[in-house]
Amino acid sequence: MCAKRVSVFGISTSILLFSTLLQAAPVLIEVNLEDKADFGFAKGLGISAWARWGNIFLAETEEENLSSLQEKEIRFEVITRFPGTEKSYLLSPHPGIQPSKVADVIGRPVLNESEQFFAQLNQDGLAIMEENGYVALEIGEKAIPFTYQEPMAIEQPSAAVLDWIQTLVDQISRDSLQSYNQRLQNFQTRYSYSDSIASARQWLVDKFTSFGIDSVYLDHFFYDSDQWNVVATVPGTVEPDVLIVVGGHYDSVTYGQSPGPLTYAPGADDNGSGTAATLEIARIIADNPLPQTMLFVPFAQEEQGLKGSNAFADEALFKGWDIRFMLNMDMIGYKYNDTLVWLLHDPPSQPIADLMVNLALTYAGLTGVKSSASGNSDHWPFMQNGYQAVFTHEYIFNSQGWHKNTDVTDSMNFDYVTKVAKLALATITSLSQSSCANFVGDLNGNSGISLGDAVYLVNYLFGKPGNWPIDPACQGDVNGDSTLSLSDVIHLANFIFGKPGDWSPVPTGSCCLF
Predict the structure, then answer these.
(1) DSSP collapsed to 3 states, 401-451
(2) What is d(CA 481, CA 462) in angstroms, rounded to the nearest whole number?
(3) Do you find a cis peptide bond into 271, omega within 30 degrees of 0?
(4) Contact criterion met (CB below 8 Å) for 313 and 387
(5) Parallel, antiparallel, or unpaired for β 226-234 and 134-139?
(6) How far, in whole angstroms, is CA 226 from its chain's centroid?
(7) 454: number of CA atoms within 13 Å, CB side?
(8) Omega into 472 within 30° of 0, i.e. cis?
(9) Strand ranges inside 292-383, DSSP E
(10) CATH, residue 343
(11) Total domain count for the chain?
(12) What angle do CA 484, 154, 53 make, to 5 degrees?
């Protein structure tokens, strides 16, 4: 009798204990928080985000929170229970590589579904995925920002700004791009653990400096060895605390080749091409500063799992940098490409990709093809930290040279590299203008409206000797009638002298002074 009671009591206790443990156990879920109210509710549950695609998250939460999500009819799916028992990875195929059936077996589609997979892997499984062309990013070691992202509001720049963009785009030099790319290949290897990468890094510093860029520095981080990103800064003229980042990795790698990457990994397309474009755009911006501060960043250790860009994006987040946009260029030169280019984005960055589609035709003779971004290049850490980014990539993938000794300049089309570089420059200059505050009425660019602006406008209208550069649509059209005339001078004077009536300058477009 007594023994029976103990047995029953023991079973009951075990069931209760198991139930309690299960309720308190963490689970990994994919949760759709595109509705802002849903996001606010989920944030109150103490969810820890592991990865994101816009406002869709892979997130760890307690089992007991699932019923709360269900009650609010928030869409979620349990990915795994006890997520910390093995190392977790986000598997992303490189653009141009058809997703392998191996991923379907080992992992499960998450975030943007067919583009990425979640898997818990040991070293053998990790090796299999990498052999099948996947970038495997470990997730769960740290939480990413659990924030709600709004798409960037983009206003089209005025006609004067569009003409100005053309003058910059016309300065992109095919010869310069080819010269930079050939020099990067001539280092023989830029493998992260080779001696040559130090020489390549110093050459990048010297090249940025030769453009007249005063602030060029090496950004140190440590993964499995000391590594350095290269950072060249061109200060902004209007919003210096707002940053635009342009870059792509400068390291290279080969697999299964002889000699191995310590000796030879030419990396002309992957990613000498993106590095060359970064240099060429920096050369032009150095002489034509934008309203926002430009950071040109060749990243280190991309081939070991986006280590350089991850370190940089984390530093930006920790220091509270206001990054308006990040543009990643990786593999933009394979010889069989001509008029098509991939524009890979997440949902918050779609308006930028839409803008790029328009700019591609206008400034580069390219047709932009939009698709989903995933964790396969240096844009991804920025997206994970809540910054907006777009990844530009060649449309026809360099399968014959990718991570092989055949990735050389002879297999590249530098007319195509030039087109993509023009698109990149048009994008950052267009965004630099369209995202600024209105400067209507401030014609002389002194950050205020005074009698000097009225005089400036008169001089502009009547062609007085001297230099009176303005953007008429966003600075001079103070009465908002889409024309620039003496009526605008009268309107501005009435505003300055406080005449009765509403003489406030009428914003007709968002722009910056340049």
Answers:
(1) CCCCCCCCHHHECHHHHHHHHHHHHHHHHHHHHHCCCCCCCCCCCCCCCCH
(2) 19
(3) yes
(4) yes
(5) unpaired
(6) 24
(7) 15
(8) no
(9) 292-299, 322-329, 340-345, 367-372
(10) 3.40.630.10
(11) 3
(12) 175
- Would you state the structure tokens that stand for residue 200, as one six-digit string? 């390549």
Task: Kindly state the helix (H) or strand (E) to which residue 93 belongs, with its residue range.
Answer: strand 88-93
CA 144 → CA 59, 85, 136, distances in Å?
10, 20, 17
Cα–Cα distance, 56 to 381 (Å, whole number): 16
Backbone angles phi, psi at 468, to 5 degrees: -125, 55
The length of the chain in residues reads: 514
Over the chain (514 residues), what is each successive 10-residue block's mean pLDDT?
36 43 75 97 95 97 96 96 80 76 74 86 83 86 95 75 88 99 99 98 99 98 97 91 97 96 98 99 96 96 97 98 98 98 97 96 98 96 98 96 97 99 97 68 78 88 80 72 87 91 68 52
Q: Residue 467, class by beta-carbon neighbours within 10 Å (0-12 exposed, 13-18 middle, 19+ buried)?
A: exposed
Contact partners, residue 457, CB within 8 Å, separation at least 6? 443, 470, 476, 488, 489, 492
Strands (E), 330-378: 340-345, 367-372
What's the CA gap between 7 and 454, in Å, rounded?
Answer: 95
Q: Give the span between the Cα atoms of 404 and 260, in whole angstroms.
A: 9
Buried b (16+ CB within 10 A) or exposed e, 340-356: ebbbbbbbbbbebbbbb
Asked whether residue 171 is domain-assigned, the answer is: no
Range of the domain at 511: 437-514
Indicate if 325 and 461 belong to the same structural domain: no
Do 312 and 425 reside in the same domain of the chain? Answer: yes
